[in-house]
Amino acid sequence: MTAVATKRVYLFHEGNAKMRDLLGGKGANLAEMTNIGLPVPPGFTITTEVCNEYYANGQKLPAGLMDDVRAAMKFVEEKMGRTFGGSYRPLLVSVRSGAKFSMPGMMDTILNLGLNETTAKALIEETNNPRFVYDAYRRFIMMFSDVVLGLSKHDFDNKILQAYKEQKGYKSDLEMSAEDWKLISEKFLEYVREKTGRDFPTDPYEQLELAIEAVFKSWNNERAIVYRRTEKIPDNLGTAVNVQAMVFGNAGDDSGTGVAFTRDPSTGEKVMFGEYLMNAQGEDVVAGVRTPVPISELQSQNPELYRQFVEICNILERHYRDMQDLEFTIEHGRLFMLQCRSGKRTGPAAVKIAVDMVHEGLITKEEAVTRVTGSHLDQLLHPRIDPKALEGKKPLITGIPASPGAAVGKVVFDADTAAKLGVHGGAGEKVILVRDETNPDDVHGMLASQGVLTARGGKTSHAAVVARGFGIPCVVGAEGLKIDEEAKTFTVNGTTVHEGDVITLDGSTGAVYLGALPLIAPEVSGAFAELMSWADSIRKLRVRTNADNPRDARQAVELGAEGIGLCRTEHMFFEQDRLPIVQEMILAQDEAVRQNALDRLLPIQQKDFEEIFEVMAGKPVTIRLIDPPLHEFLPSHDELLAQVVELRVRGDNPQELAEKEKLLRAVEGMREANPMMGLRGCRLSIVFPGIVEMQTRAILQAAVAVKKRGIDVYPEIMIPLVGHVNELKTVRANLERVAKKVIEETGVAIDYKFGTMIEIPRAALVADQLADPQNGNAEFFSFGTNDLTQMTFGFSRDDAGKFLVPYLEQKILPTDPFETIDQEGVGKLMRMATESAKRVRPDIKLGICGEHGGDPDSVKFCHRIGLDYVSCSPFRVPIARLAAAQAAIENAAEGDK
Amino acid sequence: MTAVATKRVYLFHEGNAKMRDLLGGKGANLAEMTNIGLPVPPGFTITTEVCNEYYANGQKLPAGLMDDVRAAMKFVEEKMGRTFGGSYRPLLVSVRSGAKFSMPGMMDTILNLGLNETTAKALIEETNNPRFVYDAYRRFIMMFSDVVLGLSKHDFDNKILQAYKEQKGYKSDLEMSAEDWKLISEKFLEYVREKTGRDFPTDPYEQLELAIEAVFKSWNNERAIVYRRTEKIPDNLGTAVNVQAMVFGNAGDDSGTGVAFTRDPSTGEKVMFGEYLMNAQGEDVVAGVRTPVPISELQSQNPELYRQFVEICNILERHYRDMQDLEFTIEHGRLFMLQCRSGKRTGPAAVKIAVDMVHEGLITKEEAVTRVTGSHLDQLLHPRIDPKALEGKKPLITGIPASPGAAVGKVVFDADTAAKLGVHGGAGEKVILVRDETNPDDVHGMLASQGVLTARGGKTSHAAVVARGFGIPCVVGAEGLKIDEEAKTFTVNGTTVHEGDVITLDGSTGAVYLGALPLIAPEVSGAFAELMSWADSIRKLRVRTNADNPRDARQAVELGAEGIGLCRTEHMFFEQDRLPIVQEMILAQDEAVRQNALDRLLPIQQKDFEEIFEVMAGKPVTIRLIDPPLHEFLPSHDELLAQVVELRVRGDNPQELAEKEKLLRAVEGMREANPMMGLRGCRLSIVFPGIVEMQTRAILQAAVAVKKRGIDVYPEIMIPLVGHVNELKTVRANLERVAKKVIEETGVAIDYKFGTMIEIPRAALVADQLADPQNGNAEFFSFGTNDLTQMTFGFSRDDAGKFLVPYLEQKILPTDPFETIDQEGVGKLMRMATESAKRVRPDIKLGICGEHGGDPDSVKFCHRIGLDYVSCSPFRVPIARLAAAQAAIENAAEGDK
Fold it and tell me: Can you tell me the ipTM of this complex?
C-alpha cells in the first residue's frame, strides 16, 4: 500500500482515455468523451485503487471516501441543476462497475439510484409522468435488491409482477398503468422487507454507498474469478465504480436508447451497425422484451439526430483510431453518449478493419498488424460453426480445445472403423473418431476422420499433437465422457450417443454439440493477404512449418511457410504399408533380417523425402531422425497379454499361443517404465545405428534425385534428444560418413547441415559444447520445447492432465506451459543456450519446433531471445508470421523508450 | 602436438619420482631410487610423449628416436662395462612398459633382450655357465615371440618344451641340461621361422626397436582399453618404455629374485612381507613353477643381505612416506632393486598403515586421511568373501555391483517365499532373492533376504536403491541370467540353478558364485575410529544419513551420522500391516472412507516418527512427505488384467470377476505413461491434500510426544518435487496451518522447519524464488540428485540400463551419472541454485540426499559448491565423512597455490 493518500474520486473531465488502470475502461472512456466535447451526462469515477484498498481493509470502504463522493456529487448536481435526493428536480444516477478490461462476470449496472418516496414524488411533479416514474422506481428496487441485497431478480419478475399481471389479465407491460407500477413498487418494497427483515434503504447516499460496495464485492464473485482465469486477467487490478447522472430513454416517445458499432463487427464492413428502441431503458434492449430496430431506421425517423450520431461516431473513430462499440440514450430528442469502447470483432472483421483503416489513413501498417490477434487469424483459417447456429445452443460437453476448426460427422469408436468409413481411402463418409485417448495405432483412423474427440489427455496428448499436425479439429480431455467400446456408445450426463449419431465439435473452443451444426468455410480474403504482407515486411523472425508429408508441406507453403522446421520421420513409419516392415526390423533376431527390412524401408523413405523436397523447392527442410522408442511401433502390450492369457486358459491353439507368447516376450523386453526418458532419440541411434544410417542415406539420395531434376535442396539433418556432446559427436561422425558416401557414389554435391534438438535440459546447459565447431559442431539448434518443458518441469504431458487442470484453476501455474513457453524456467534455459551457443558459433541457426512455435506469446519470446525462426503446424503459420511482426514492433517501441 | 623437440629418452639419473606423467610410474621410481643411491641396474626411459607421438604418427616410431636410444645405451654400456650385442661381455637388457598408473592389461616385460648366437657365446665364455645362458636364451625367444611377434607363449611351452621333456622322460625343468636348453632354443627359433615366415631377429637393436614398438602397441590392446575403462584412466596418457641392464637372479645358487611389501598389505601390520626364490628369474616366481619361500627366511640364509634389504626398505618407506611394493634381484650375492611403487592394500590395511604412519611420525593426519579411499572403507564396512577362497574361482556371472557386501544363501524366486523362508519373521534361513527386477511388492521379501540378484536394472534401479537403503548386498543387471519363474530355476551360460541351491554374491564387485564361499566379517578396528576422528576434525561438510526406520537410523548414528537427511515416509506405507489401509485410502470413493483410512494411518505414522526421533535424539531429521505416485501402492496392473481375462474366459465366478474388474478399472484410472513425471510429490499434496496433512500432523504429534519425554527434536519437513514457487507456497501454507494447530492443541513448542527438494530442473532455475523469505520461503534445500539427474539428462533410471551400459563402454559418458554427479550439467544446476538461493537467504541450509551423497567424488563436489551437508545410506556414512575431509584438504591445498 504505497501512499494511497492520492485522489480517490475523479470527475469525468479530470480523467482521460490513458487512465484505464486507475479509472477502468468505462470510466476512462467516459472521461475522454467528456473532454473531447461529446454530450456525456456528468458523473465521476471511484478508482480501482479504492477497490484494492477496500479488500486490503478487510472489505471496508476507506474512511473519508463518501466525503469525496459527496463533493463530486455536488459538482454533478450543479452541472445538472438537480439535487441528489432532492424534493425538487431530484438527481438520479446510474452506478456501474468498470475494470481495466471488460468483465462480463462483474456487476454491471444499477439505474435510477436515488429514488425514494420523496424523489419519486418530486420527479412526478417535474415530468408530470407518474407512469414513467413508478416504472423507473420498480426497476430500481429490483436491480438494487438483486445486486446489493442478494435477492433474485427473477423472484420480483416471476413471483410478483407476473402474478399481478395474471390477476389483472394483462398480457404486456404496456398495459400497466402508473397506478399499477406504483402498486408493484410497493409490493417490491414489501417483499424486500419480508426477505431481508429490514426496510429498503431510502437515504440516497446510503443507497449509493451500498451500491459502491456491491461493485467492489462483485470483483471477487465466482463468475468474475472464473472469467479472469479464462481470460488471464490478474486478480489485483480491481474495478472502478462509475456514478453518472441518469438520462432517460424511457422518458417518452421522443426518447430512446441503443447500442451501435461504428463498423460491422462480424464482417468489418464500414457501415453503421447497431439497433435502438424508442421510449426504453437500456435493459429493455438487452432483455429482449421488445424488439429493437436497426440503427439505419433512425435516419428516416430523425435525420438530424442520425446525422449528429454519425458525426459523433466519426469523431470517436478518428479520435480512438479504432472501431468503437457505443451506448447512447436519447432524452427528449437530445443525444447522450453513455459508453464507448473498442468493439469486439470476429477474426475476419479484425483483419478487414485493420487493413481498411490503413487505407483510410487512420492507422499505420504497424498498428494494423498489432490490431489483429492470433485467435482472430485462427478463426479465419479454419471452418467455424456458424455463430447464428450457436445462439442459445448448449454444448453436450466441453473439453480442452486441442486443434482448431469445427467438424461435423458420425461418431465412430475405433480407428479401423474410421478408416473404413472415412475419407482418404475409406467410404468417404464424414466421421468423428471418439476414443478414451489415442495412440500410434489410431493414426490411420484419425487421418480418415473429420475430427477427433478424446475423454482423456491434454493439449499435448498424442491425439492433440497428431491432430494439429494433420490440421484435423480435435477436442481432448472431455472429462465426464464415458465410452463403452463394446456397446459402441458414449454417455455424457445421462445422454447416450451411439455409433453413427452425428455430432459437431469445435476444436477452437472445446465445445461438442449433438447433431450437425452448419459450418462456415475459412475466408482467406484479400485483406488477409495484404495484412500478412505487411507482417512479413516488418518481422525479423522467419517462420517455418512442422510437416511430415507433402500435403502438409504444400498447405504450409501456401500459408507462407519459409521452410520446414520439423519433419518427423517416424510418422512415416506408422503408415499401413510400412508398419509391418518396421516391426520386422525391430523384432529381427539377427542382423541379416534386420538389414533386409532396412533395405526395404530405404526406397520408401527416400520417396517420402523426394516428395517433400520437391514441394519445398529450395526452402530448407529440417528432418529429425527417428525419435520415439521402438516399442511404439509394436502391438499393444496389454492386448497381447490378454490374448496370451485367453489362449492359455482355452488351451486349444498351442501354435498361436506360442507365437503370441514370443511376441509378448519381445514387447515386454522393450517395455519401459518411463518411455519418455528411455531408449529413444539419439540413444537409439547409438545402440541401433542401422535405422538412422538408412534414414540419412534416404535423405541424401532423395536430395540427389531432386537436385538432378533441377530443384534446389537444403536438407538439415537433426539429431534428437542429445544431452551430452559425445552423443552428438558419435552420431554425427557415423552419419557424416554415410552422407559423404552417398555424395561420393552419386557425384552430386548436396549442401546439407547437421544439427540437434535442444530438448533435454542438459543440452541447454552445455549448449556451448554442442555448438562449438571444435566439439559437438552442431550447425543449427532447434529447441524442442515440448520435451524441454516436460523435462524442465518434470511433467509427463500424457499424464499432466490430472494435476495441470487444478494447477491452472488454483493459479499455481499462470498459464499452461505446454501452450505458452514458461519464460522463468524453460525460457531461462533457452536464453542460456542461445547466448552460450552464439558465443562459440555466432552464425549458428537457431529455431524452435515445439508446439509453442504457433503460440503468439511464445513467438514473441523467441524473437526477444534472438532465435532465427519458429516452426509450427501449417495452420498456425500465419499466426506465427503475425506474432513475429508484432514482436518486432513491440521491440522497436521498447527500444524507443 | 606442441613442440615435441623435447627430450625423448631419460637416463635413470636424469629423472625423479615426480615425473610420473612423462616417465610412467615405473620409470619415475627407478630414477628416484637411482638418485637416492640405491643399487639399481642402469637404464633409461623412453617417455610417454613418444607413445602419443607414435600414435599421432600413424603408429610409427618418431624419426631419430633410435639414435637417442643408442646414445643412452652407450651410457649404460659404460656403466656396466659391457657392450650391447657385443662378442665380449655383452649387455643384455630388460624392456618394460610403464604408464603413469599401473596397468596390468599392458605388455609387462621382455627379459634378456640382446641375446643371439654371438652374445650367447660371449656370455658362455664369460660365465662358464652354458646352461644358464641357453635357459636365458630360450626364455628370451619365447617372451619376445609372445609379445612382439604375437605367437602364443603356451605353444612354446606346451607344444615344444613339454613334448621334448616327455620324449626325454624329464619330469622337471631342473633335469634339463645346457645342451637340452640349447636344443630347445633352436627348436624355438625354428618354430618362429615356420610360423612367421622369417627369421627371429638377431640384431640386438632391431630386437630393441621391435620391443619398444610392442610396448607402445600394448597401450591400445583390448585388455588395456578395458582396464582403463573400468579404472577411469584417460586414454591419452600413453605409456613409457623402460630399458634396463639385466642382472640375473638365475646366475647360480648365490643369486635369486623376489618381491616384497614393506608392510603386510592385507592387514597393514608393520612386518616385512614377501617371498623370494634363489637361482631364479622373476617369471619363475610369478609362474608358480617353483614355490618361493617367505622373505623372513633370507634372514637366516643370508643375514647381511637381509639387513641390507631391510635398510633399503626403511630408506624407501621414509623416502616415499608410504608402504612400498618392491622387486629385487640378487646376482652373485649382490642386491639390486628393480622396482618400487606404492603397495596396493586391502581396506583394513590401508586404514592401519595410514594411522600407524601418523604415530610413527612419517605422515600427517591430513595425509593419512587422503591415503584411504572410499572403497577401502567400503571393504571395511561389509562382510567380504575371503580373498583366499576366490583364488582361481570363476564367477558364474558378473552383474552391476549395486549394494556392497557379500552374501551367501539359498536361491528363491519370489518375495513371498523369501519372506517365508528368510530372516525377520520368516523361518530364519539365509536366502537370496533372484528376480528379473524388483518392485515395491517385493520389499518384504528383500528385507528377509541376505542378498538380492536381478537380471535387469542399473545402480539406481528399485532393487539397488532399496537394497542400499536396507544395507543388503545386491547385484543388478546380470544380463544373460535367464529366469524361469514357473520352473523356479535360472540359467546362465548353460548352468541351471534351482530354487534352494546356494550361491554367493559380492555386491562390491558384482560377481556371483555357485556354492557357499566363506565370508569375512567387517572389521571396525581402533585404527578406523582414530582415522575417522581425524577426518571429522578436518571436514567442514556435515554428514547425515538416509534412513526410513529406527534400525537404519541407529546403525547410521553408530557410523557417525549427524542427522537424517532423508527419511522417506512412503516406505513405511509398504509394510504389510499398513498397505491394506493405504490401498483403502487410495481407492476410497468418498471423502468419509478416505478420511477414516487416514485417521487409522495417523497413529501408525506417528509411532514411526517417535521411534526415529528418539534414536536421533537432538539431531535434525529431514522427513520427506509422500513422494511416489499412488498407483505404486496398488496391485500390479498386468497381474490384474491377466486375472480378469482368465475369469472372463472361465466365466465361472462372476462375483470375483466383477470385483477384479472394478479394481482393474481403478488401477487403470491411475495408470500413467511416465509415472516418474506424473502425479506424485507435491502435485499429489495439492490434488489430494489429506495424506500430507495427516503426515504433518503425525510428525508434529510425534515431536511433541518425544519432547515431552525430555528428548530434543528438530524435524525438518521436506516438500518433494517442487518445480514452481507456487507449489511450495500452496503446500507450505496448508501444512503450516496443520503444524501450528498441533502446537496450539498440545501447548508444546516445536522447532520445525519447512524446506524443499531440488530435484526438478526448473526448481534449480528458480531457486532464488523458492528460498526467498518473501516468496517460497524454503528454510532448507535438499538436492535430490537422483531425480535431478534423471530429468536433467532425460534418463529414466529404470530404463537407462539399455543405453547406459553401451554409453559407458563407448565412453559417451565418462562416468555413470547416477553414481557420480555430472558436474557439467546436473552440477551446473546445483551451483546455480546454491548461488542464487544464498543471495536471497544467506543462512539457507543446503544438503544433498541422492545416492550421490555416498560417492566420494560427488561429496567433494558438494563441498566445493558450499553445501552444508550430504546424506547417504548408513553404510556409506564413514565414506562420506572421509571424502568430506579429503575435500577440505584438497581445497586448502588449492587455496595454497
Answer: 0.81
